[in-house]
Amino acid sequence: MDPFRDFARSPHPTLGVEWEICLVDPATRDLVPRAAEIIDETQARHPELHLEREFLQNTIELVTPVCRNAGEAIAYLGEATHKVRAVAEEAGLRLWASGGHPFTDFRTQPLSPKITYQEIINRTQYWGKQMLLWGIHCHIGIRHEDRVWPIINAVMTKYPHLLALSASSPGWEGLDTGYASNRTMLYQQLPTAGMPYQFASWDEWVGFMRDQQTSGVINHTGSMHFDVRPAAKWGTIEVRISDATSNLRELAAISALTHCLVVHFDQMIDRGEELPTLQPWHVAENKWRGARYGMEALVITSRETEERWVTEEIADLVDTLQPVAEQLGCVDELGLVPEILERGAGYQRQRRVFEVHQDWKPAVDLACDELTSLTWG
């Protein structure tokens, strides 16, 4: 099997979700590098769970099996979170999730002992060491590689929509950055991260990846870390735009929206319809506006540079995706998206608490509390 050319085609539009959560000290609210210990103990009690060590030793990645829809995925993640929480609390720790921690010092947070992580740090130095950031990765099954890049290019037109709803990283090293998603700005500093190029075909992507191998880039990083990328081994498109949400309820909404969006574009191909695209500079501007302004972003919606408020766009997008949600069986989960519009995104809730207390510790407490209170299913 050629790891670049061969795409393990998925006959059904399946969903897999990866959610990154962390361990915090309930007294200091700082991150605690004890993930390996908690993972090992949890899996000893529950060997059926799929838990992964991540880039930092404070992080536990929860990985679903292949699911039919967001409801199945969130049911699995809810049960896994419950079991991990029990072990963490026995160890005197709390679970916390967001796009970025508002005050921890990256110099105090050790890497997990994995050679590819060490290679990333060796190559990227200062910027790589700052990668205290956490996200949601949604894998959606695609039936043929020829569909991959038209769909990815179309998904990129909805970048600020997915980001605004999930944005939850306004603080960094004790400061309010003024951004809804500081995670987005930090992560793109890595040389293999950020927006994918708008490849026109699968062959063009294969040529690109072979160039990366020949030039040694992949040897240093293990893979390309684009915001949306093909996962040829699994036969999926992996959407990595969203900040990690603090809770399962919003995770359900983001997962359903992402799943429905990809399937919607796949069905447009079936109907012979042209998929939307934006000029690369418009995509880049929208990404920045989503990271900076979140729910208050005015986004570019067409190649003619028309603009609209992202909240209006999101409301209409939910309506557009209703038929797909009915087919996939995730109408209830997609119906949680308007809740976020009403309640405010994670960055807004964190910032409100910070402005009252002039301290980020209550914002960390808020995210910990939401992980147990804003549940689903």
From TrEMBL:
One of its GO terms (molecular function) is ATP binding. Pfam families: GCS2 (PF04107). Keywords: ATP-binding, Ligase, Nucleotide-binding. Its EC number is 6.3.2.2. HAMAP family: Glu_cys_ligase_2. Belongs to the glutamate--cysteine ligase type 2 family. YbdK subfamily. ATP-dependent carboxylate-amine ligase which exhibits weak glutamate--cysteine ligase activity. This is Putative glutamate--cysteine ligase 2. It comes from Corynebacterium liangguodongii.
